[in-house]
Amino acid sequence: MSDIEKMTQKSQEAMQAAAKLAEERHHSAVETEHLMLEVLRQEDGIVPRVLARMDIPVRDLTQDFEARLRALPTVTGSGVRVVAGAGLQRVFGEAEKVAKSMGDAYISTEHFLLAALRAGPSDVQKIFDRRGLRAEPFQTMLSELRGGQKIM
User: Fold this and answer.
1) Which of 56, 86, 101, 107 is the most buried (most CB within 10 A)?
2) How far apart, in whole angstroms, are the C-alpha atoms of residue 49 and residue 141?
3) Alpha carbon of 122 to those of 17, 68, 117, 133: distances in Å?
4) What is the three-class DSSP state of 136?
5) pTM for the whole thing?
6) Could you read off the pLDDT tens digit of each residue along the chain, which spans 152 residues?
């Protein structure tokens, strides 16, 4: 994955919390589900604000991601090292592209969410679909809330 310097403080916090969560739950890799859950948990973050304006309950999404994480396999033993999963690496790469396309210099949590929404068929996508969350309406509402501001 890319440099942490390319990320905003909020996205760094979400990524670090996702890694800690994966470790605490004895998962072998940090997955997109870990990151999405941590992004949703940032009550003062932009993503929960956008979702609230869209009338998509953050609590429901959080519960869905919690359930998905409970279904992931666990590993035991000493010396188990948590790594970034392939899905998370794909989402991070896509988030860089999303940030650039929006004219932003840094990757923020909304870029992670948009990247996950656009990543294609996955368990994460199924959760978003079930709750009616789509990339275009999210980006439209995000643009309204940001009012043309860029992340520089």
Assistant:
1) 107
2) 10
3) 22, 12, 10, 14
4) helix
5) 0.94
6) 456 789 999 999 999 999 999 999 999 999 999 999 999 999 999 999 999 999 999 999 999 999 999 999 999 877 778 899 999 999 999 999 999 999 999 999 999 999 999 987 889 999 999 999 999 999 999 999 998 888 87
| 102 within 8 A of 67, measured Cβ to Cβ | no
Tokens matching residue 131: 């709750």
Query: 118-122: long-range contacts at Cβ-Cβ below 8 A with a sequence spacing of 24 or more?
Result: 118/94, 119/32, 119/87, 119/90, 119/91, 119/94, 122/32, 122/87
Structure tokens that stand for 41 in this block: 């948990």
Instruction: Classify each residue of 51-84 as buried b or exposed e, where b means 16 or more C-beta atoms within 10 Å of its C-beta.
Output: beebebebeebeebbeebbeebeeeeeeeeebeb
